[in-house]
Amino acid sequence: MTAIGDDAAAPAPAKPRALDPNRLVWIAFFAVAVPCFALRREVPWLVKYPRAYMVPVHDWLNLFMDWFVDTFKWLFHAIAWVLDWPMDGLQLLLQWLPWPATIAAIALLAHLASGWRLAAFSAGALSYMVVVGYWDESMRTLALVGVSVPLSVAIGLGLGVLAFKARWAERVIQPTLDLMQTIPTFAYLIPILLLFGFGPVVGLIASAVYACPPMVRNVLLGLQRVPSDVVESARMSGTTERQLLWWVRVPSALPAIMIGVNQTTMAALSMVIIAAIIGGYADIGWEVLSTMRRAAFGQSLLAGVVIVLIAMIMDRVSRGFTDPQRLVHHRSGSIWRRHAHLWLAFAAVAAGVLLAEALPVLRHYPDAWVIFPAEPLDDAIIFVTVSYPHVTDAIKNATLFFLMLPLKVGLENTIKPLTWGFALTLPMSLGYGAAVLALAAAAARAWRWRAGVAILLLGGLVYFGTTQTPWPVFILAIAALAWQVCGWRVALFATAGLVLMLVTGHWPQTMLSVYLCGAAVFIAFAAGGLLGIWAARNDRVSAFLRPINDTLQTIPLFVFLIPVIMFFRVGDFPALLAIIAYAIVPSIRYTEHALRSVRPEVVEAATALGCTPRQLLWQVQMPLALPEIMLGLNQTIMYGLAMLVIAALVGTRGLGQAVYIALGQADFGKGAIAGMGIAIIAITADRIIQGWSNKKKLALGLAREG
Length: 706
Known about the structure:
The chain has 706 residues and is mainly α. 80% of the residues lie in helices and 0% in strands. It is built from 34 helices and no strands. The protein has helices at residues 2-9, 21-39, 57-96, 99-114, 116-131, 135-165, 167-182, 185-196, 200-224, 228-236, 241-252, 254-269, 272-279, 284-293, 297-320, 324-329, 335-338, 340-358, 374-387, 389-409, 411-414, 426-446, 449-464, 471-486, 488-503, 507-537, 539-554, 561-568, 572-596, 600-608, 613-642, 644-647, 655-665, 668-700. The protein is globular. Residues 1-8 have low confidence and may be disordered.
């Protein structure tokens, strides 16, 4: 009995715990990766895909485009002819108006949007354009934007309403917008050129196409967020579906729609230089492009500042009209009160026209009064390059040898007596591997196993290099990461996209783009994050960085290339600097915004518990702000990829260069595939980072599931 009782009291044997499927995925990955790395020299096709197995997708695309152009070219020429009229008319009007009248009218509009400070800034910015002698070119740019923005707004409004009303339309429009916003503009300039030919209207159409997606997204978002009680009240009042849309939903969504107008305006303005490339239009974009080709930094900078000022004026004015209280205020009162600024603008224009008849200086600013400090700026650049070549060379070489080349070809091909001062031996390689394994084990023990996997992946990438990593390893790593974070759909998309780059012969360019953009994003995100933390903790730093960020986001991308070329000549390093300068802004802004948005009661509770400022930052604010900061990483990657085509102008090799060469050859197929490669990288990174951010928000209780 005792034995039976003891047996009955004995605990049941524990069931073996099932292994985490996520861990199984990475175990399988490393089981494939290790043999691939070991055999890559004996089996070369693991690194270099055989040419005999490539698929001529670009030839098929060219055949389709040839048929499409032959069939529909007459229609697109008719559209170009129609758009030519308003553009020429607006240009003639802006150039005919006296410059004081135009300045006064825009200043009054700025005052209506946001008060006297914006009015004063607008007047000063426009006066700069007069004083430096770029008034006519600026008015041509305004004519281009003045037609492309209403065109984009109209198309975006129609597509946004269609996507809201029809579920099938949204399923088609949303991925199309993703492609439009991630494919480089140079890639879809090729079909636009083939269909419309060269000329100013072609630049107008390219600007309108590029600027349309923000409007569509904001219209759809605004209509979806109209409160349900407002809709139900309107339905109970007997409104039809059409009345419900245009009398209730659209007015309620107006603030979001105006934000779309703001973003569309900025996008159209960012296209003025690219429009000048294909349009040959003597506007401010052409001035920047032509001076850049001559490496005239001073003139290019002065012209680029004009675009920055125009962008800042249009951004502030359009943003001012998104204020709901201001919109309500200007809808109330008498006709005179509601339209007082409009009447004053008309009066200012009329007075300017009349005065210009008596004073010709008001119509044509005298050349003798122009202040154009381009030569001193050029002299300053030349002085630095001649006086301190050892400093610039030291910075360039250190970055190349200790960061860029290891990421590109790996430590095994970088560590040489000429570069590092010693050769890489077998004991060193074994020691490096042991150190990576130890660090991965420590990270997995301190945090979670995923941290150890991340260190193993990074350690392998640095040792073998991006371009020397076997393509099955890279594709499987991205597929595994996408599947774990976002699910099988994103994993399938990423895998299919990378396989497309492989079988079409664009794999080497894809890896070069990943390497260059990865290095730039790493530096931009690290430096921008530190600056964002500093700005979040110091209002003076925030106020100092704000106009710098505005300038970096609105200055033409081409202008970034001029100083880096003059200081560091051509190659990957100047391209790296140009990408960093453009991509650092989202990291700064998102980090500052995320830290400032941490709930005050959380900060007060942590302070009451005795947290020091350092503990408060790293143990309370940073963990809560991390999901938002990661969205800043997302945008940093997007900005970095957007600069790849521009970076091709300074000698980089990659998908950007492939797009640029295809544009010069009017090769639609190659340009489309290379542009699609950049879009695939961008969309995959976007989905993975957003998926991780959403999961982190759920874990922290910052969002609700579903």
